[in-house]
Amino acid sequence: MPEAQFTKERHIRYFLRCLKTFLPDLYTSNDSNRMLLAFFSLAGLDLLDVLESKTTPEERQGYIEWIYHCQVRSGGFRGFSGTDFGDEIRTRDNEAWDPANVPSTFFALVILLILGDDLSRVKRVECLKWLPKMQRPDGSFGEVLGPGDNVEGGGDLRFCCFGAGTRYLLRGRSGAGLDGVEDIDVDKLVTFIESCQAYDGGMAEGPFCEAHSGHTYCAIGALTFLDRLSSGSEKVQLISPGSEKYESLVRWLVSRQTTELGEEDDSEDDSDDGTSEANIAQDLAEAVAGLSIDESIVKLLAIPPPSENSLHWAGFNGRCNKYADTCYSFWNTATLEMLGKLPLVDAAGNRQYLLEKTQHLVGGFGKGVGEPPDLLHSYFGMVSLAFQGEQGLNRIDPALCATHRTVQRLHALPWWRGTE
To answer: Could you tell me which of 19, 2, 10 has the C-alpha nearest to residue 382?
Structure first.
């Protein structure tokens, strides 16, 4: 079979359209997540190494100003400007109607770094004073502060990752300029994350829930952020090679690679000739009725072994017994990259799946086979390819989900150099 091609120029045009023109009406419900959409658009162009050549300095400065307009004066960033009713009428009593948002704060900071901003206008101290207020007694993080400073929103591993990531970005290794600023409770956060590991090794949204690749990425991302700022020698078992927790997690992640792609089939034809799933199940039930266990086993339908052709495309799913999905190529490979175990996957199969099955003709990537492109799957599809060294893509940090150039800008900040 001919080698699959990464259509870089089409992807550039796709991300430029998303950045500079109106998005399709399906994005309307995501208006309050505009900070996230901005991240995908700008980070996508940066990953393609064309952000500075395809946008002007004036445009990039305009994006920076919009992000700072979303900064809340008491610390953190809102998800979009639609809730801003003005600092002049903002009071302690009404600020809960225009709250800072934990995920949006993380993405706002990363976008500023991608755009080359020095974060000098970020209310760093205020943000780091606000962050511990977002932590619940069990160690998890919420999304926003509601009336009476009550923590509102979800409490799963996504917010733990963004909370730890914001701390990583603003606290820095030296913690310069933060005397007297309360830190989050790191031990409680680690304990909560550890409690989310399911019986099969993957990480769930909370204790005793089903393992999921997205939450697994968030768990290991949070621990990676914490570990990068840790001065102690004691390692968390989940990210310590050789420990039972680590090994079971790696096995679960590697097991997520699948050749079940969910391709479109002729289901209508099946129903016409009487071979629908319901009919097959009924025929099987009738065939084994009254038989002994051994006889029943003999009567079971034969499952053909995988063919060489079916193994050519191997994407990833997010849970057991699910079809492959573009974004799970990211969630799983990024987590394995953080754990130092990415070589365990079938990189060629993942590449063929992404480029031949979900890469779209107009640029971008769809969620699954035959689906139209969207920003989230387009960015995550490219990031997974970048981990595998795809030509035309920049190197990327798996925890920050941004290019190494962005990480270098972060580490050049005063509070990282210890010169503030």
So the answer is: 10
Q: What's the whole-model pTM score?
A: 0.90
Query: Can you tell me the distance from the alpha carbon of 407 to that of 401, in angstroms, rounded to the nearest whole number?
Result: 10
Question: What's at 102, amino acid-wise?
Answer: V
Query: Which of 106, 7, 20 has the alpha carbon at shortest distance from 48?
Result: 7
The DSSP annotation for 317-360 comes to: -SSTT----HHHHHHHHHHHHHTT-GGGS-HHHHHHHIIIIIB-
On the 0-12 / 13-18 / 19+ scale of CB atoms within 10 A, 140 is buried
| Rounded Cα gap, residues 279 and 265, in angstroms | 17
Alpha-carbon torsion angle 164, 166, 171, 172, nearest 10: 90
Domains of the chain: 8-19+31-264+303-357+403-417 (1.50.10.20)
Specify the DSSP element, H or E, that contains 163: helix 157-171
- C-alpha 125/C-alpha 131 separation (Å) is 10
Q: What is the pLDDT of residues 167-226, one digit of tens each?
A: 999 999 878 889 899 999 999 999 999 999 999 999 999 999 999 999 999 999 999 999
